[in-house]
Amino acid sequence: MVPVLVAANGLHAQEKAAAKLRLNYIKHMDGTYEIKAHAFVKKGKEVEHCTGINLGFYTDADYEKLFKKVPTDEMGMANLVVRTADVAKFKDSTGHFHFYGKIENNEKYKSQEADVSAMEATIAVNFKQQSDTERFVQATLNVYDERAGKLIPGVKMPLKCFVKRSLCSLPVGEDLHYTDSAGYVSIAFPNDIPGDAAGAVTVIVKLDEDDNYGSVIYEKDVTWGRHLEANENPIGHRSLIGARNNAPWFMVVAINAMLFTIWGYLFFVMYELYRIKKISNSAK
Amino acid sequence: MESATTIEQLTIDLQPRKFGRAGQIWTGVLCLLILNGVVSYIFQLKYGLSVTGMSNYVSWGIYISNFVFFVAISLVGSLISAILKLSNAKWSIPLTRIAEIIAVANIMFAGLIIIVDMGRPDRITNILIYGRIQSPIVWDVLVVSTYLVISILLLYIPLLPDLALLRDKMKGLPKWQHQLYKILSLGWIGSEEQYRILHKSVNMLAVIIIPVALGIHTVTSWLFASTLRGGWNSTNFGPYFVAGAFVVGAAGVIALMYVARRNYNLEKYLTDDIFDKMGKLLVMLSLVYTYFTINEYLTPAFKMMGGEKALIQDLFIGHFAPMFWGVQIFGVIIPVIVMLFKNGRKPLPLFIVAVMTIIGAWFKRYLIVIPTLFHPYLPAIEQNGVPKVISYFPTWHEWSITAASLAGSLLVITILFRYLPFISMWEIAEEEGLNHEHMNPIAVKPKK
Fold first, then answer.
1. Which chain A residues are closer than 8 Å to B191 by Cβ?
2. Strand boundaries in B50-183, DSSP class E
3. pTM of the model
4. Number of other CB atoms surrounding residue B26 within 10 Å
5. Which CATH number is A2-119 given?
6. What ipTM goes with this model?
């Protein structure tokens, strides 16, 4: 019995893989704070995503005060969304946010911890239209200064401006727009960006992966795009590829005319058969 | 009296006869083939088209090539009954009914084999309820139905005087057979008015069947030519198919003529001269068909462009080369060479040549339908990136159902031969100068 138990334990005592955990901090100007976590194992040049494991998010460096557990998806990603009301739990006395993440106990991967810190930053955007062809995205960046203990203009900091698209984002203007001494930058918005049927586009202004402030994203819908003219429905009008009730008129007329002519002809011949029969009957 | 003897002789010579031992065995074999096919079809209905060799890539197989074959051979009705009749080729009179019997039997099974090719035959009504008038398939349904009706009328209407002759003169008939002739003859009395209506109706049908017959096989060719596939995307397909149809139809008539002449001792009616003329006609049709065949293959072979290149290579030197060259040599070239000589147009050699032509024509339809499907535009690749081998070979179920359809059309021909005079007695009598009073003694005399 004992050898069997020992053997059984030996069979189940598989070595756990050493996983890595990366955390990214993103602040959305709609009032939410997001932590994007990625758990993975590096095997040479290949990356194996840690799927279906729980990541714990803590508010303290001792990993004792659990905020929330979030499972990873098939790409090994887990997102923690923190509302403004809860973000104070992650803030210390110096104004820094600290987010602590941990790979919770599981069968496949060793426990791993990671943390990310950032300070508060805000982006305010004004959409100014001087004329039909002159439009500007006016962004102002304010960042938290430890010494001042408050938000101050973010000077010479790079901002990116995009229009949101289905698969990726369409850059507007330069790759990077640097703020001036007032934390201000004005970005000319082009006139030829296609929007939806109402001309709406989603404009994003972003501070991207700053060492101190993480990522800050401002996003808003504006009707500055070109109105998208819906393609004419190829099967919505009479054509060869049209639906059953949208056949070309010439075809409907021609084919029906041929059918009526030929079948009318045939019915006349069948009528002649009837006449033959009638002659026979009258002869009798 | 001499005229009455002649009509009596005609009736004795050409009336339907009971089968001998050979006929009974023949009918038995056909019935067995049909039964085998029905069993296979039940399998197919139960397990779906997975019992066939068809697949996502080769979605048309021998059912469709068989359909094209049936449509082709049925065109002989228009050739003999209409074109030769309207051009006053009197020598073709003994052949008109044989041609129409072939047409009716084959066009019936053309429609049936299409239903077999459908995995869900219960959806046949969808073509009527949801069919689009822009679709060549809808055109094909319309034109096949129309041609079937015309062929039936062109078979039946000229039968009336002969049915009346059988009703009145044929002795020793079972009661049901006599009753059948009585009903089908519509009480025919052979009055001048009836003969006038008959001639007018036959001529009207002979005129209308020509465009419909040309239409049926042109539309069938458009099922292929209206696609963009290599080997099918050809403006030549309409006349190519029609020319091929006339060839196989003429060969079908020759084959049946020989069988009828041999089994019924009809040398007096199906003379060597008729065989000679049919042989010459078949040579001419074969040469026209060869012209279209050269057109069909030379132009893409000269360019060797895109999807056509792989197909041409497959046909000329690849997987289908034995069948392709076999069809050209044994189905066209050798028959034409044989028929160019007078001795080659005698009944027996002509019969052999006709059978070779028919078999070659069946395989030619196989070569039209299937090789193209081996070369799709989108490459056939497995999920792991390995090219998928496209293959098709008909399964046992397909062969047995196809054989059953061929046996079915032969059975229809056999039954019609058994119970109907397959050479038109009244037309031969008319041609020999008999007036209608002699043909139908109870005819109403015209009012003076």
1. 279, 283
2. none
3. 0.72
4. 17
5. 2.60.40.10
6. 0.89
